[in-house]
From TrEMBL:
Every Kringle domain range: 106-182
Residue span, SRCR domain: 165-278, 287-387, 394-494, 509-609
Name of the protein in its database record: Neurotrypsin
Organism of provenance: Zosterops borbonicus
UniProt keyword annotations, A-Z: Disulfide bond, Glycoprotein, Hydrolase, Kringle, Membrane, Protease, Repeat, Secreted, Serine protease, Signal, Transmembrane, Transmembrane helix
Limits of the Peptidase S1 domain: 640-883
Length: 885
């Protein structure tokens, strides 16, 4: 049988010669690397795949977690090289269904970094084949431990060793070997178990700390905060003792990345280590969705008291589904499903009578039964769909080819048909254009593609033929019609023109969510939907083509990592490669538009007609000078949870306290506020966990997008940390600290339009500030993740009696509270904003720091305003420490 003819880009990719480069496309280890239409790329799913030709396309069916050989109802294509293991499948994201047993990317390796053990079976128990049966592979990777043996190896540099093995059918397959070195799991009693040198075992509790426990919780994906405990063993230990101590700093991603010490026989006196993982306040217990055919749908399961369990569907509705989707970070149309729509669970039923308003950040914040209190069976397990389709998406069904069929449109979570009253070939051309077909189009005869089922969603559609999509045409209200399914609209498009990236024009392009019409997230109209572009290999050359297509002729700058926010529809393009001379994005070299390996956190953006700002050196240094509290950019206002992205340079005194990592990277720990050239003010509780060792921290100023190096961004080492003398970790009172950057006396950094100090308040600040429109800012918790772009939110200051009524004696005269008490206004500072500013504007236009984000009950909760350290109470102390006048 002749091998099928595949597109040239597929042949180049599988052979490793991507556009004449001797490598596959640039891929990142932090996300899945598979080429697939859906997230169905886990390596174990490929282990049973049968390859017929040397370079074949597997037509595999998605059936829950397996590829199988059954006839395909829904086709998923995956490209796989049967001779040389396809590099596309060397990585994957952590499977959120396995939070209790996360595996660190650590394996036993030899001196050159390659596995050299004697393991010779796959994870599924199949015996490995001798490497001499694959001489081409041995020659391709010399000196990588391949030879006359069948031991697992990782000659291609992957983190996990693997081997070839023979399937039952006689075909050759490959699979990972059992290299779980470093995996952790929690026993029923929360005891920590570590997979080490081929065995599950425990850790001695003699030197077990909260920092060690926090690393375990982070590795399991349960939370960032862990509490250490211990359990005694009066008799013989049931499992081996692996580690004498972990010696973690608390910021490691996995236990074996700590400076651990292996166990010494008989030297453990305090029993074995126990962990309690505490979800951050406002985040809620971990959730997962399982049993769905797509990654955005499934049975809802919640983690509590060391177990995964289901939720009963009593009172379960779309508002509950919205909260679940938000907590999981899934956009789209939330839809609740009942009666075990995605199959029955097998564990405990943990929740019942869930009643969310739809605005909550997590299921924990919703009204519900007590844990375990329910009267349900698993036939009532609740499910959700967080469908990513956008309203107005169209598809063709019932045709003999992809270019013809019955027209179906997506609205309010459902697919439905369109009545054919008044349709002409010009209208059919709009449908075909939306689907990416150009050329002639025709309305089909009634009944050609069968009668649809379900809703008839549109009638009396009057397209003139020039519209870009169906929703641009006048039509009746959704769901209003006088038709039957015998009148369902069908169309025939020109199949030969279904290459939307060819031609002189290419697909329409637009910019979204920028500060002006010349910048924003890049979105492309393909297959009837606006979608984003992934930032793999995205450069200024690509940005230049986008700007040229939009009519701009100046300098173009590329922006990556969702610089202008995350999109909500499909991701249409990846690995775009323009030479910079093209007139439209459609003329650039681009792989198959259905295939990518990205998330919306990687959406690209552009800035057109970019003009590089000159950096003025404003050398005045104190809040007493003429520059404090001035916003030299963006004097206009632009209306954190319920908050909005700020404009670049809006809050030039915004700083961040960064915790150093072990790979020279840093991560956001707390917000901070610049008050002079050398000093910032922040919250004392920010140092509760990691102490006041200045070597652990850096201060970042001039930042806007945490993942992109901004033009005015600087990171400076810390020279001194001063906690208020009356602060102690068991209280929220006196929650203020000063941090000095390293530099010569009085001048650590230069001011510019993006880096300026805020004004300190007077000790008795006048009451003529606008108390109803104070601002909080930061990169804090938005309900699904920490924002990459600086956020802002408007909050009113509240009367003292309202704060005392809510918080009682915990609220002192050294605090103020601000926020909205009503349920429909949910602006509040959250975990990542700790230490950040609460700012108010004086009548003269200058901004003062009135408060420092300190504490509260949850994030954006009704009747739970944020509490802030009252800065005016500490002005004498601040001036004494900093020597400011």
């Amino acid at each position: 049988m002749a091998a099928p003819a595949y597109p040239a880009w597929v042949r180049r990719w599988v052979s490793g010669q991507w556009r004449n480069k001797k490598r596959p496309p640039a891929l990142r280890p932090s996300r899945p690397l598979a080429l697939a239409d859906k997230v169905a790329n886990r390596r174990e799913q490929l282990s049973e795949a049968t390859c017929i030709t040397e370079m074949s396309v597997m037509m595999a069916c998605w059936k829950q977690n397996d590829f199988n050989d059954a006839p395909c109802a829904k086709e998923i294509r995956t490209f796989y090289d049967c001779v040389a293991k396809a590099e596309a499948f060397l990585g994957s994201k952590p499977n959120q269904n396995h939070l209790q047993s996360a595996v660190a990317s650590v394996c036993a390796v030899g001196a050159l970094g390659y596995y050299n053990g004697s393991l010779a079976v796959t994870e599924a128990g199949a015996e490995c084949l001798n490497w001499t049966e694959f001489p081409d592979y041995v020659q391709q990777y010399p000196d990588r431990g391949l030879g006359d043996h069948n031991y697992c190896r990782n000659p291609d540099g992957g983190t996990t060793p693997w081997c070839f093995y023979r399937l039952v059918s006689g075909a050759i397959g490959w699979a990972n070997c059992d290299c779980n070195q470093g995996a952790v799991r929690l026993a029923e009693d929360r005891g920590v178990e570590l997979y080490f040198n081929g065995l599950w075992g425990t850790i001695c509790a003699d030197h077990w700390t909260d920092w060690d426990a926090s690393v375990v919780c982070r590795q399991l994906g349960l939370s960032e905060i862990g509490t250490a405990g211990k359990k005694s063993h009066p008799g013989p230990w049931p499992v081996p003792l692996h580690l004498q101590s972990a010696n973690c700093h608390g910021d490691e991603e996995a236990l074996l990345l700590c400076a651990y010490q292996e166990a010494v026989s008989g030297a453990c006196n305090q029993g074995s280590a126990v962990v309690t993982c505490v979800p951050p306040e406002g985040v809620g217990a971990p959730l997962r969705i399982v049993g769905g055919k797509e990654s955005f749908e499934g049975r809802v399961e919640v983690y509590h008291d060391g177990k995964w369990g289901t939720i009963c569907d009593d009172q379960w509705d779309d508002r509950d589904a919205e909260v679940v989707c938000r907590q999981l970070g899934l956009s789209g149309t939330p839809k609740a499903l009942s009666w075990a729509h995605y199959g029955q669970g097998s564990g405990p039923i943990l929740l019942d009578e869930v009643q969310c308003s739809g605005n909550e950040l997590s299921l924990d914040q919703c009204k519900k039964s007590d844990w375990g209190q329910q009267n349900c069976d698993h036939i009532e397990d609740a499910g959700v769909s967080c469908d990513p389709f956008t309203e107005g998406t169209v598809r063709l069904a019932g045709g003999r080819s992809p270019s013809e069929g019955r027209v179906e449109v997506y609205y309010n979570g459902d697919w439905g048909t369109v009545c054919d009253d008044g349709w002409t070939d010009l209208g059919a051309q709009v449908i075909c254009r939306q689907l990416g077909f150009s050329g002639p189009a025709a309305v089909a005869s009634e009944g050609d593609y069968g009668a649809g089922q379900g809703f008839i969603l549109l009638d009396d559609v009057a397209c003139v033929g020039t519209e870009l999509s169906l929703l641009d045409c006048p039509h009746s209200n959704w769901g209003q019609h006088d038709c039957s399914h015998a009148e369902d609209l069908g169309v025939r498009c020109s199949p030969e023109s279904n290459t939307v990236m060819d031609g002189s024009l290419g697909p329409p392009v637009r910019l979204v969510d920028g500060e002006s019409t010349k910048e924003g997230r890049v979105e492309v109209l393909l297959h009837g939907q606006w979608g984003s572009v992934c930032d793999d290999d995205w450069t200024d050359r690509d940005a230049a083509v986008v700007c040229r297509q939009l009519g701009f002729s100046g300098t173009a700058k590329a922006r990556a990592m969702a610089y202008f926010g995350e999109g909500h529809g499909p991701i249409h393009l990846d690995n775009v490669e323009c030479n910079g001379m093209e007139h439209t994005l459609g003329q650039c070299a681009t792989p198959d538009t259905r295939i990518h390996s990205c998330w919306h956190t990687e959406d690209v953006g552009v800035i057109c007609d970019y003009v590089e700002e000159k950096v003025p050196d404003i050398r005045r240094t104190g809040p007493e000078s003429g520059v404090c509290g001035m916003r030299l950019l963006h004097r206009r206002k632009k209306r954190i949870i319920g908050g909005n992205k700020s404009l670049r340079g809006s809050w030039p005194w915004q700083a961040s306290l960064r915790l150093k990592g072990f790979r020279r990277d840093t991560r956001l720990l707390c917000g901070a506020t610049l008050i002079s050239s050398c000093w910032v003010v922040t919250a004392a509780h920010c140092f509760k966990r990691f102490g006041v060792d200045v070597r652990r921290y850096l201060l970042r100023v001039g930042d806007y997008h945490t993942g992109v190096k901004d033009e005015f961004e600087r990171e400076l080492p810390v020279e001194r940390i001063v906690l208020h003398r009356n602060y102690w970790a068991g209280s929220n009172d006196n929650d203020i600290a000063l941090v000095r950057m390293r530099g010569r006396e009085g001048h650590c950094l230069s001011f510019n339009h993006h880096v300026l100090p805020v004004c300190l308040p007077d000790r008795r600040e006048r009451q003529d500030i606008n108390r109803q429109a104070c601002i909080i800012s930061g990169w804090g918790d938005t309900g699904k993740s920490y924002s990459r772009t600086l956020l802002q939110g408007v909050v009113p200051l509240l009367p003292r009696e309202d704060c005392e009524a809510r918080y009682g004696r915990k609220f002192t005269n050294r605090m103020i509270c601000a926020g909205n008490l009503s349920e429909d206004k949910r602006v509040d500072s959250c975990q990542g904003d700790s230490g950040g500013p609460l700012m108010c504007q004086r009548p003269n236009g200058r901004w003062i720091i009135l408060g420092i984000t300190s504490w509260g009950y949850g994030c954006g909760r009704k009747d739970s305003p944020g509490v802030y350290t009252k800065v005016s109470k500490y002005v004498p102390w601040i001036k004494k420490v900093t020597k400011l006048k």
